[in-house]
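One chain is below:
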Amino acid sequence: MSIKKGLKCLVTGAGRGIGRALVAELHGQGAVVYALSKNPANLSKLKAEFPRVVPLCVDLSSTRDIKKVLEPIEPVDCLINNAGIFEPGDFLEASSESFDKQFNINLKSVITVSQITARKMIEGGRGGSIVNISSISGQRPEQGIAVYCCTKAAIDMLTKCMALELGPHKIRVNAVAPANVDTDLNQPGSYGQEEKDKVEENQKILLARTPTGTLWMPMKDIVNTTLFLASDLTSQITGQVLAVDGGYLAN
């Protein structure tokens, strides 16, 4: 996957997982990367490994902090809204606190970051591209993660609405919807045994329904798909939610 050297790109959730992999590839191809994360330690490691990266430490749960940090930076050519959180829990036990937390990060912050970035793209007159990282969970329900599924379904619709409104300004908006990716977000970690059992059961179902027989989608596939949509290799793909799922949603 090749991108234009000197491309200016803002990546949220850049400190780990998919975001970090995107930053590494963009940096390696000569892009100017603004890497946003709330974790200063992760940003320090990123800067040490990729010296041209511009680190931005922001807690995306705060609209005020987002505006304070992003409004002063230069216009970028592309935005990748990758940051997200995942809190499992059955529907009957889902708390308002967990609902607010997941929707604030997974949806509200995407709107705020995209508004700031898109306005600058429009003012610059050159257009650009925005890629939202969604999930197959936005299109196929899963037990035990009802609120998370709803946040990703909302991202899918937001992507289409943004494409509709921003298209006249030459701004393309698409989403990438991965199946399982082997990042710390998908690891049981400190879950209780009951939650671990549910995660494992969901993974068994996912694997059985995936035509390619792949449980963990290769990070390279996610990165290449995202950067293709972010690049100028296409001018007419917009409003799409592209699944990287081994054929799961087709089954």
